[in-house]
Amino acid sequence: MSTLLKVALTVTEEQADEAEGFISTKISQGWEESTTEAGHRMTLYLEDHSLGRQVAQEFQTQFPEATVACSEEESQNWVDTWKEFFTPVVCGDTFKIFPPWLSEKEQNGVTHIVIEPKMAFGTGHHPTTSLCLGTIGTLAKKKMIHPGQTFLDLGTGSGILSIGLAKAGLTGLGLDYDPLAIPCAIENLENNDVADAVEMAVGTLDCLDEKRQFDLIVANILSGPLIDMAPNILPHIAPGGTLILSGILAEKQSDAVSEVYDRRGIGLPTRFVDGEWVCLVWKNITR
Is the confidence at residue 286, as pLDDT, over 90? Predict the structure, then answer.
């Protein structure tokens, strides 16, 4: 029987959000979180042992005071393990996320999204994902985004934001630099009956035709890349379009991101906050 590398990473509660953001850039799957006497613990189970040990080493370098432990465990009923702690996630007033085994038939006024949690990062449990999806729902209810528009989802991961936008009537393209994420995203699109509305591809902004524009661009990644891509992302927003940026710490990073885009002539954003995280939204962009 194959083994998984278990990587247990423990930080203080104050470092939890930053640590989760760091992990999300290193692996394309979810992880288990728990609160212990020692602090906030994130537990990864990886088939790729060398990747797991590399992540552990880089994490220790990034967070010197963290406790890092690696061990090998037999791979037994991994999906069943997910089922023990995965619960539905409510994202604002519009969307509710379910794993396949908990999906409800009755909508009860909300739009259901079915996500297989064992796959790529983006199950809705992390505040950046639920906040971004909730923001999309708010904009859709206010008719600020609407059916017939086009979108670009940068760093699509599990495809969860693309699914939400497609269920709101938009069509678009999801991009991710991780080739392992795209098959997962495509499967999730099919499970939600929106595969015809979204194209998925491996790549970044560099793979787009320089003249291609979208009515909406959404990127739920990290503040550093969001700042770096500002010169390249704005030309792809159609006149009057919308930009949604998430994965940003409200107190430590939001001003820096806002100022970079403001200096490029699109003004300051509207802020949607959830705990430590903020989602920045620019509407009716003209340049």
Answer: no
For residue 237, the cross-strand partners are 214
For residue 192, give the amino acid letter.
N
Do residues 122 and 115 make contact, with C-beta atoms less than 8 angstroms apart? Answer: yes
Q: Report yes or no: 10 and 40 within 8 Å, Cβ to Cβ.
A: yes
95 has which bridge partners?
A: 91, 111
- Mean pLDDT score of the chain, rounded to an integer? 87
How far is 268 from 47, CA to CA, in rounded Å?
A: 43
3-state secondary structure string across 189-200: HHHCCCHHHEEE
Integer-rounded Cα Rg, in Å, for the chain is: 19
Q: Give the pLDDT band (50/70/90) at residue 119.
A: very low
Class of domain 142-285: alpha beta
Whole-angstrom distance, CA of residue 284 vs CA of residue 287: 10
Distance CA 53, CA 238 (A): 43
Domain boundaries, the chain: 3-76, 142-285
- Annotation: CATH topology of 3-76: Alpha-Beta Plaits (3.30.70)
Q: How far apart are CA 248 and CA 251, in angstroms?
A: 9
171-207 confidence digits (pLDDT tens):
999 999 888 789 889 999 999 999 999 999 999 999 9
Contact 150, 214 (CB under 8 A): yes
pTM: 0.75
CA distance 220 to 132: 7
Rounded CA gap, 142 and 251, in Å? 27
Q: Which residues contact 207 (CB under 8 A, 6 or more apart)?
A: 175, 201
Q: Express each pLDDT in 82-99 by its tens digit.
A: 566 566 777 878 888 887
Q: If you search the block for the tokens 């739920």, which residue do you land on?
A: 220
